[in-house]
Design goal:
alpha+beta, OB fold (Dihydrolipoamide Acetyltransferase, E2P), four-stranded antiparallel beta sheet, elongated
């Protein structure tokens, strides 16, 4: 089982945030194919799969951050390995086939769903109720800042503190310009005329 870890893009990078998974659990990915998108303090990168195999288990969901080097997912090189993991999960948390299909489709962590079926079995209804509740809660949640946004805010805040705020007011006589505009340029805005003049001058 291959351990997929949070990559490091620069000397100062300490953690990254998963912004998108291009594959769901159980899906096959080819070596060199874009597998997920990660955001650091400075850049957003598409990360390619280092091997061909089945995305077995996603440990870091979209929107979650992990330290550099932490395991974020597992890739099974053979289908037999994938089946063993799925069988193990089914024994630990019983789930119906339809519910399992929905869980894979939405990338849901089944440990967060409480089963209402016999023996705590997770049913299709349980998954749909969880999805509905999650959507309602998410609409009211303030999303945490990503590393890139944190960096932007910190730099803007620092610039604001050390910069001298100056307002410059310049008076310009537009009399001649307005005379020209009132002639053959009635349908053209003053802004358009100024932009044309600036493009010629610069």
């Amino acid at each position: 089982m291959y351990e997929l870890r949070m990559p490091k893009f620069g000397l100062t990078m300490e953690e990254g945030t998963i912004t998108k998974w291009y594959k769901n659990e159980g899906e096959f990915v080819n070596k060199g194919e874009s597998l997920f998108e990660v955001e650091s303090e400075k850049i957003i990168n598409d990360i390619e799969s280092p091997i061909s195999g089945y995305l077995t288990k996603i440990l870091a969901k979209e929107g979650e951050s992990r330290k550099v080097g932490e395991v974020i997912a597992y890739i099974a090189e053979k289908k037999e390995e994938l089946k063993k993991v799925e069988e193990k999960e089914e024994k630990e948390i019983p789930i119906s086939p339809l519910a399992k299909k929905l869980v894979k489709e939405y990338g849901i962590d089944i440990s967060k769903i409480k089963g209402s079926g016999p023996g705590g079995r997770i049913t299709e209804k349980d998954v749909k109720e969880y999805i509905s509740k999650y959507k309602e809660e998410k609409s009211e949640i303030i999303e945490p800042l990503t590393p890139l946004r944190k960096e932007i805010i910190e730099r803007l805040s620092k610039t604001y503190k050390i910069s001298i705020l100056v307002t410059n007011v310049t008076k310009v006589d537009f009399s001649n310009l307005m005379k020209i505009k009132s002639g053959n340029l009635k349908e053209i805005s003053v802004t358009s005329i100024l932009l044309k003049i600036l493009s010629i001058v610069l």
